[in-house]
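Before surveying the methods themselves, it helps to consider a single example record, giving the amino acid sequence and backbone structure tokens:
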Amino acid sequence: MIGGPAGNVLSSAMLAVLGLALGEIAFAAWGWRIAFIASAVLIFIGVWMRTRVAESPVYQACVERRKRLETPPLGATLVSHWRSMLIVLLVKAGENALFYVFTTFYVVYITRVLRQPRTVALEAAAIGSVVDAIVIFAAGAWSDRIGRRVVTAIGFVAAAAWAFALFPLTRSGTFAAIAFAAGVAGACHGLIVGGMSAFFVELFPTSARYTAFSIGYQFATVFTGAIAPLIGVALLNAYGSTIPVSLYALAMTAPGLISLGMADETRGMNLDLDT
């Protein structure tokens, strides 16, 4: 879960450095490809790290039990946990949409509406990503004390409100305003991720955790996050205003907040239980 924001920090920083080093014209023509090619290195690093991380004792104990007992059908396992999968999908959908509004669409807004150089947009995105990653750790620790749902919900409310303040506050076009807005956006998103990361894991028993969690998470990523920047640009083109984009962010937040309100708090639950 934290690997995604960490990768975003690295990619944003690399894009910002390339933009400064190559200049606007060279970066737009071919320089941006360097970052995408270099990102392949992260794949090998991720695989290397994963092969050296031992499974948790809880999971190892579950595997041993499965060797002695008949494994339930996959379909039955998923059906019994559909509610938790739906919660993951809705919360992740809101988080993902907000992330791309605050990053990808924000870059479009800075360059097209504010008519600032691309390097300014990339530097702001890098600042927002760094703040995002830092807040994730702080929010995770905070969720250990006051609850996963509360921290995630606070992040959603803050992010939805900031989606309306983000664009008006940057109309001056100053780098200070643009960078500050990106930093606050990163902090709001970090609150959501810091709370939801443990929450998602704790929603499922060990026997269904990986599969059920992944289905809800990946469906939300593919069908909401991937199209969020396209929807933002389409709304901007159609209405010539950022207000519809902010309303879209609010609309994507609402189902996640509702599902959080209907879910049980998972903080402090015993992960040894496999029911």
In short: Residues 82-113 form the longest helix (32 residues).
